[in-house]
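Figure S7 source data.
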Amino acid sequence: MQDRELYRRILGIEAPWYVERVELKLAAGEVHVYLDHEEVEQWACAECGARGQPYDHQAEREWRHLDTCQYQTILHARPPRAECPEHGVRVVKLPWAEPSSRFTALFEALAIEWLKEASQKAVGEQLGLSWDEIHGIMERAVKRGLARREAEKTTKIGVDEKAFRKGHRYLTLVNDLERGRVLYVAEGREQASLDGFWKTLSSEQVQGIEAVAMDMWDPYVNSVRAHLPGAERKIVFDKFHIAQHLGEAVDRVRRKEQKVLKAAGDDRLTGTRYDWLRNPVAMEPKDRREFAELRKSGLQTARAWALKETGMALFSYIYERPARKHFRWWSNWAARSRLQPMIEVGRMLKRRFENIITYLRHRITNATSESINSKIQWVKYTARGFRNLQNFVHAIYFHCGGPDLAPSSTK
Ligand SMILES: [Zn+2]
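Tokens for the predicted zinc ion complex:
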């Protein structure tokens, strides 16, 4: 008698459900709790919650619950079916579990909390779960989170690519820049990879998107143009990617000049590669003085560097008119620089300029995506058991998607 009352309380079982009997299997380290219910006039449908007449019962099922006193605890019950006015004959809403799960909601909630902090392997071992069971819990959590997300409005997004397996394959990620979370993940970095994202949005949600940060990558540009009205005013090429292009051009100038100088016995550029890439403000005073000398040296690399810095000054403008004037002047300077890499990068930026200047209006970069990227590295590290890409995609949503992932029946 008393153990039934104890288990009813531990499990939070409420009328019409009650604990019919408890079986202790000491050797197996298991407690089996059998549930039954009183006569019920109407049940709530598991899908929509509408009330309906009792119909019949399914065969007995089992649910793994939180351990009690180190014993694996397993619930048993025969799920009743009722006639929902909307869905017809369906299994009723069971207070301890979601319809498709073999675990109780509390057990899934525990596993989810652990999975947020620890590797899949560690959680699997601690809770005695297989890879498939772990992935099932994560997949259900992600589906719930994504379903809840539908109505939300997002105004600023970032499109980013992520290389995995040593750069041979790519994922396309769409990030919510305001909330710092992943909205969408797809394989590849083609136009089709991004096209799938737009299908997840309602037309109101599409209308609500004001700005999209991205790299200067045509497949993404094409997808945004095909799906987002007014795309030409909303695409913002990421300023860090622009800085990267300029930095690479400076480095090409330096490498070429270094060869010429070295052949002439001049080692002024030796060991300076990183000086040209980092911010002088961050240097030690002595290094900064030496670097200042180099910059005044009249070397080609110094001119390329000045072009890069002056080019990036575009992003500190507040108003568009003077910024456009600055860029026209800069782009002429780059064109006349007689430094081939700078001429090329200048030409590219000129061609892309209308979606660079949009930065001044929207003030977004993919920097948020970069922080999401480092989180994805962690996901990769803690989930070495990914047997397929889909598991990896679920894990990215799970750890970086930011939705509320607890099973709904615990709410
Ligand atoms: Zn229903």
